[in-house]
Design brief:
The protein is mainly α. It has eight helices and no strands. The chain folds into two domains: about 90 residues, Rna Polymerase Sigma Factor, Chain: A, CATH 1.10.1740; about 80 residues, Arc Repressor Mutant, subunit A (Orthogonal Bundle). Helix content is about 70%, strand content about 0%.
Length: about 190
């Protein structure tokens, strides 16, 4: 290893786990940076409770590192890890929100009248799906019925994720239009 390589290697912060136990180091990070970490996460998640949960998960991940000595700057690593967890949660929330577009598919024990109404709605949705272009219909079914992600649908259909998103919007708007026509102003 040349002189240049030795000088430019990442140097651990003073007091990193090479100097004291890993657990003590994480406890120190918590006491010194938890308030700023939670504040950082609260701006992204807009919920103090969720920010605290994500921060806790980030500390747990730090404790579970196989080779803590490989991390040079723990504070930066902590914030980056917490930021990534926050992004994952936001994406998951967005996916769950998008999947509850059609209340017809909610599970409950309906009355006879509601069952008839749901059958009518299902037939209406089925007819609307038949009206869609084949690729659009397939993308919608793979995503909303089979629960595949946009990337998975794109990969299976050999298309771009953007095209799949366009198909999903087109299908959703078409089905909502059909439901409004079929149920009048009662559809929400």
């Amino acid at each position: 290893m040349g002189k240049f390589d030795r000088e430019n290697q990442a140097r651990p912060e003073p007091g990193t786990p090479t100097d004291e136990s890993h657990r003590q180091w994480v406890e120190r990070l918590f006491s010194e940076h938890n308030a700023s970490l939670v504040k950082f996460l609260r701006t992204r998640l807009r919920s103090n409770e969720e920010a605290r949960e994500v921060a806790q998960e980030a500390y747990v991940r730090l404790l579970q590192l196989d080779k803590p000595q490989a991390v040079s700057y723990f504070r930066a690593f902590l914030f980056k890890t917490a930021g990534n967890i926050a992004i994952d949660r936001l994406r998951k929330d967005a996916r769950e929100k998008n999947r509850t577009v059609f209340p017809v598919f909610e599970v409950e024990t309906p009355s006879t009248e509601k069952t008839a109404s749901q059958r009518e709605t299902i037939q209406l949705v089925s007819g609307c799906l038949d009206d869609l272009p084949p690729k659009c219909r397939k993308a919608f079914l793979l995503s909303r019925i089979y629960g595949m992600s946009t990337r998975e649908v794109a990969s299976q259909m050999h298309m771009t994720a953007r095209m799949i998103r366009n198909y999903l919007v087109q299908a959703t708007l078409h089905i909502e239009g059909c439901l409004r026509e079929g149920h009048g102003d009662h559809y929400e």
